Every structure is written in C-alpha cells, then in structure tokens.
C-alpha cells in the first residue's frame, strides 16, 4: 500500500470537506426550491379560486342588474308596515273607481309568525257599484281574500247597501 504524504492527506481532507459543503448547499437549495414550489402551487390554487369567485361575482352582479325590474316588482307585491298606507290608498282608489263610499275600520298587523294581516272596512253604495268594487279588489297586486262579508240594506231604498268586510292579506312580510 502506498503511503500518503502530508500534502495528499490535506488535499483529500479538503476535497471531502468541499464535497460536504457542496452536498449541504445542494440539499439546502433543493429544500428551498421545494418550499418555494409548494408556496407557488398554493398561491396558484388560491388565485384560481379567487378568479372563479370574481367570475361568479360578476355573473351575480349582471344577473342582479338583469333581474332588477323583476326583483322590484316582487318587492312591490309584498306588503309591510311601511307600505300598509299604500294598501289603504289603493282601497280608497278602488272605492272611488267603483263609485262606493269606503271607510277603514281597523287594521291588524301580525305580531306572531302564524298571524295574518287584515283590514276591516265598511262600504256603502248601490249593488252594481259594490260588485264592481269586489271585482277590482280581486285584481289588485296584493294577495288576499275578503272574509266575513255582511250586506245590509240602508234605509228604505233597496239600492242603498252597506257592507262590512274583513280583507285578509296573504303576502305581508315583517
């Protein structure tokens, strides 16, 4: 076997040391590259999800604009405390159009979820005018039904009739 001199030994030790340093550097760079790749991959997934959400948001915004008229019409079809006065005005207008006298007696706004909104009213007029009022009432935008209708003749004139009724409103929202 050959004898190693001092210089060769130092070259071998330096070579092993350099190989260790290079191996450590390669391992460190490889782990950094893997970590960076993982972060980039997660960011790409997040970016793709964000773009999908952005596309869905734009589509939803477009649909809101597209259906805004229908949404407004639906909102108008439901009655609330704020629009209850509009219902009274509508009843007055219907009575005026039909040629009968209208007098609101009481209104009930639901307090519990199973309660129904209602409006009690009194009408006075001729038979044909009263029938015309109830036909117009059936065509108004609020969903409901006339209930507890009481017809009675006023005075000696057979055409002068007084009606007490209750209108139950189905499309009332709190």
Q: Can you describe this structure?
A:
- α3 (84-98) packs antiparallel against α4.
- This protein has 174 residues and is of the alpha+beta class.
- The longest helix has 61 residues, at 6-66.
- The protein folds into two domains: 1-66; 79-169, Ribosomal protein S6/Translation elongation factor EF1B (Alpha-Beta Plaits, 2-Layer Sandwich), CATH 3.30.70.
- The mean pLDDT is 84.
- The protein has helices spanning 6-66, 68-77, 84-98, 127-138; strands at residues 101-108, 117-125, 144-153, 161-169.
- A four-stranded antiparallel beta sheet has the order 1-2-4-3, covered by helices on one side.
- The chain contains four helices and four strands, in the order αααββαββ.
- Helix content is 56%, strand content 21%.
- It comes from Candidatus Giovannonibacteria bacterium RIFCSPHIGHO2_02_43_13.
- This is Type 4a pilus biogenesis protein PilO.
- Keywords: Coiled coil, Membrane, Transmembrane, Transmembrane helix.
- The chain crosses the membrane at residues 9-29.
- Residues 50-77 form a coiled coil.
Summary of the model, kept short:
By secondary structure, the chain is of the alpha+beta class.
């Amino acid at each position: 076997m050959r004898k190693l001199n001092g210089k060769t030994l130092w070259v071998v030790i330096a070579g092993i040391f350099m190989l260790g340093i290079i191996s450590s550097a390669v391992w460190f760079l490889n782990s950094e590259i893997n970590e960076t790749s993982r972060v980039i991959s997660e960011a790409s997934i997040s970016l793709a999800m964000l773009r999908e959400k952005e596309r869905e948001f734009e589509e939803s915004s477009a649909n809101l604009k597209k259906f805004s008229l229908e949404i407004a019409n639906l909102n108008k079809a439901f009655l609330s405390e704020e629009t209850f006065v509009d219902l009274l005005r509508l009843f007055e207008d219907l009575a005026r159009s039909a040629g009968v006298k209208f007098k609101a007696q009481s209104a009930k706004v639901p307090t519990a979820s199973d309660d129904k909104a209602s409006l009690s009213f009194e009408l006075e007029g001729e038979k044909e005018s009263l029938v015309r009022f109830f036909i117009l009432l059936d065509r108004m935008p609020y969903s409901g039904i006339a209930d507890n209708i009481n017809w009675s003749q006023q005075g000696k004139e057979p055409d002068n009739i007084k009606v007490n009724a209750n209108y139950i409103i189905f499309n009332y929202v709190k």
